[in-house]
Amino acid sequence: MFTIYATGKLVGPFFIVLQEITGDKFSLQVQQELFTAPNLPETASSFGKMKKEYSTVWLEQIYFSNVGDRTALVMD
């Protein structure tokens, strides 16, 4: 998931949910081979889709920490 200002500028890091058969944690092998970047926090889910818990993490850790107090959030 990523955030874009109305001007088209990207805001903060991207947030990626990857599919992992074992559930909400990456296996040791995947952790060792997974590319990591400081602007690309990743997490795992058994279906590879955004769950309610991940939406909360994105809002708290990425969105609110990178935008001002007077914003409007439009999600599509």
Q: Topology, pairings included?
A:
Blueprint: E1 3-4, E2 10-11, E3 16-19, H1 28-33, E4 42-45, H2 52-66
Parallel strand pairs: 3-4
Antiparallel strand pairs: 1-2
Commentary on this structure:
By secondary structure, the chain is of the alpha+beta class. The chain has one domain. The N and C termini lie close together (11 Å). The mean pLDDT is 80.
Number of domains: 1
- Uncertain runs are none
* Distinct helical segment count: 2
The chain-level mean pLDDT equals 80
Query: Could you spell the SSE succession in H and E letters?
Result: EEEHEH
> Could you give the count of β-strands?
4
**Widest sheet, order of strands:** 1-2
Strand percentage lies at 15-25%
Quaternary state, please?
single chain
Span of the ends, CA to CA:
11 Å
As a percent range, the share of helical residues equals 25-40%
Radius of gyration: 14 Å
Question: What is the structure about, briefly put?
Answer:
The chain is of the alpha+beta class and 76 residues long.
Task: Give keywords.
single chain; 76 residues; alpha+beta; two-stranded antiparallel sheet; two-stranded parallel sheet; 4 strands
